[in-house]
Amino acid sequence: MNQINQGIPFVDLKLQHQSIQTQLEQAIQAVLEQGDFILGQAVSDFEAAFASASGVDYGIGVASGTDAIALGLEACNIGVGDEVILPANTFVATLIGVLRAGAKPVFVDCDPQTALIDLQAAAKAITPQTKAIIPVHLYGQMVSPKQLLDFADTYNLLIFEDAAQAHLAARDGYQAGAVGTAAAFSFYPSKNLGAFGDGGMVLTKDSNIAKKMLLLRNYGSSQKYFHIESGTNSRLDTLQAAVLREKLPYLTKWNSDRYQIAQQYNRELAPLASAGIIPIQNHSGIGHIYHLYVVKIDDSCPLNRQQIQAELSALKIQTGIHYPIPCHLQPAFTNLGYQLGDFPQAEKLAKQILSLPMYPGLSNSQIQAVVTAIASIVSSEPQQLLSV
Ligand SMILES: *Cc1c(COP(=O)(O)O)cnc(C)c1O
User: Fold this and answer.
1) 54 CA distance to ligand 1 middle (Å)
2) Is the Cβ atom of 161 under 6 angstroms away from ligand 1?
3) Fewer CB near the last or first residue (10 Å), C or N of the chain?
4) How far apart are the CA of 304 and the centre of ligand 1, in A?
C-alpha cells in the first residue's frame, strides 16, 4: 500500500518504460551510431509497421498530431472554400488542423452518453460547401464506422479520422485509421503509443494522398532542391521513430491492460450511479482502447466536479479534465461566430467530466483506492467537505 500513500498519478510513463528500458536505450544508441537523424531507416520501418498494424497501406510520419491533421487535410485537397464538420468537444488541435489547411470549421454537438460526435446533428450542418467530416475517436472509442460510412455516402463527404487517441482501436470489424480516406495519429508522450517527445502520422489507403504527404512534410520537394509543392518541414524524427518502433509490439497488451482497468472501474463505480457518478459509455466493446477513463459528475451528485477534483487532489489522487472548454468557446476563436448555448451537450459535458487515473500498470488496489475515495467524498456531508 506504500504506492497508495505516495498518491496515485494520472499517468505514469516511467512505469511503462522501465520494463523495456534496455531495449529502448539500444534503439536510441543504434540511431546515434548510424547518424541518420532525418528520415532515417527507423522512420520508414515504423511507418510500415504502424500502417500494417492498423490495416492500411501507407503511413507518413510527421512532427506532431496537429501537423498530421493540417497536412493530411491538405493532402486530401481540403482547403480554402471547403467546410469541414468536427465535434465541438475535441482537443483544440483538431480545430487548429482544419484552420491551418485553410478550410472552414463547422462544429456540431455530441452524444452525451459516449461524448462522440452526434451524426444527426452533423446532418443538419451540411451545406453545399461541406467537403469532409472529422470524426474524433475520443477517449479511445471509435465513432461507429458503419454510421460514418453511411453518413459520408449520403452527403458525399470525405472522412478524415482524428485517431490521435485511438491507436489500434477497433469497432464492428473496422480499425481506427482504416475507415476514412485518411487519418491522423499523435505520438505525444502520454498517448497510448507515445514517443519521447512530439510525433505524428498520417495513415491512408490512397497512394496519391501518400505521395502528396511525402512532399508536404519535406519542403514540397521530390528530390533535393526541386520543389513541386509548397510544403513545410514536418518530419517524424528518426530517434522518435526508433523508440516508437520498439514500443509498438507492446501496444496491444498495453491497450488490453487499459481495457481491464476500465472494466474494474465500471464494476466498482456501478453503485455510485445513484450518487451521480456516471461513466462515459462504451458502445464499441473490446475495441475501446481507453486512452482516458472519463466519468460524468451529473446534477444529482451532491458535489460538483470542481469540488470532487479538489477532494481527490487533497487525497493525492490526480485527475484531469478533457476538456474544460469546448472549442467553440475558446477565446482565440470567437471570430468563428459561435456562442454559449450553441452546443448544449458539449457545454454540459465540459462542466461535468472528470478523467480518472488510467495507464497500463495501474494496480487493482490503486483502482480500488480511487473508487473508495470518490465514494467517501460523495457520501459525506457537503458542509463538512467544504471546510476541508
Ligand atoms: C493529442 C491530440 C491531437 C494533437 O496531437 P499533437 O501530437 O499533440 O499535436 C489532436 N487531436 C486529438 C483528439 C488529440 O488528443
Assistant:
1) 18
2) no
3) N
4) 28
Q: Ligand 1 centre and the CA of 279: distance in Å?
A: 23
The Å distance, Cα 69 to ligand 1 centre, comes to 9
Is the CB of 64 inside a 6 Å radius of any atom of ligand 1? yes
Say yes or no: CB of residue 54 within 6 Å of ligand 1: no
Calculate helix-pair angle for 364-379, 305-314, nearest 10 degrees.
Answer: 130
HEC secondary structure over 272-338? HHHHCEEECCCCCHHHCCCCCEEEEECCCCCCCHHHHHHHHHHCCECCECCCCCCHHHCHHHHHHCC
**Distance (Å, whole) CA 213 – CA 209:** 6
Q: Which atom of ligand 1 is nearest to the CA of 186?
A: 7
Mutate to test the pocket of ligand 1, among 69, 94, 161, 185 (most ligand atoms within 8 A of CB): 94
**pTM of the full structure:** 0.96
Domains of the chain: 15-108+115-249 (3.40.640.10), 251-385 (3.90.1150.10)
Q: Tell me the best of 91, 136, 137, 290 to mutate to test the pocket of ligand 1, counting ligand atoms within 8 Å of each CB and taking the most.
A: 91
Q: Which three cell numbers stand for residue 247?
A: 514500443
What does each of the 388 residues of the chain score in pLDDT, given as a tens digit? 445 568 999 999 999 999 999 999 999 999 999 999 999 999 999 999 999 999 999 999 999 999 999 999 999 999 999 999 999 999 999 999 999 999 999 999 999 999 999 999 999 999 999 999 999 999 999 999 999 999 999 999 999 999 999 999 999 999 999 999 999 999 999 999 999 999 999 999 999 999 999 999 999 998 999 999 999 999 999 999 999 999 999 999 999 999 999 999 999 999 999 999 999 999 999 999 999 999 999 999 999 999 999 999 999 999 999 999 999 999 999 999 999 999 999 999 999 999 999 999 999 999 999 999 999 999 975 544 444 4
What is the whole-number distance in angstroms between the Cα of residue 162 and the centre of ligand 1? 8
Chain-centre distance for alpha carbon 88: 14
